[in-house]
């Protein structure tokens, strides 16, 4: 599970660099060129990344009754840093709504990974 997570992380990094350089191919831009498409892209891409990372690196951080995979914390920090950094690129626009949908995607992806992990650990009822 680690290899797919790291490959997808690399893909996200390449997308970010391409966007910073205003070099995203038109065919990729067309995938999310509809109202809310950018927000959906943030939600899906970061949600999938969080799912893969949480499944690959499930070590939990316990917060009272709750626990989250530790890997999610640096992911959230990097997403926030990347969104903030967009204000320094001519071709990019920093956006709180992008950040919110990215965080929402991470939350849902992490929750799904935890549910999957529990399902694997819980023997089926007979």
Quick overview of this protein structure:
This protein is mostly helical and 126 residues long. It is 67% helix and 6% strand. The protein has helices spanning 2-20, 26-31, 37-56, 72-85, 96-121, and strands at 60-63, 66-69.
Q: Mind explaining what this structure looks like?
A:
The chain has helices spanning 2-20, 26-31, 37-56, 72-85, 96-121, and strands spanning 60-63, 66-69. A two-stranded antiparallel ribbon has the order 1-2. It has one domain (2-121). Strand 1 and strand 2 form a beta hairpin. The protein is mainly α and 126 residues long. It is built from 5 helices and 2 strands, in the order αααββαα. The chain is elongated, with a radius of gyration of 16 Å.
What labels describe this entry?
2 strands, mainly alpha, 6% strand, 5 helices, 126 residues, elongated, two-stranded antiparallel sheet
Percentage of β-strand residues: 5-15%
* Strands in their spatial order, largest beta sheet: 1-2
**H/E series:** HHHEEHH
How many domains in all?
A: 1
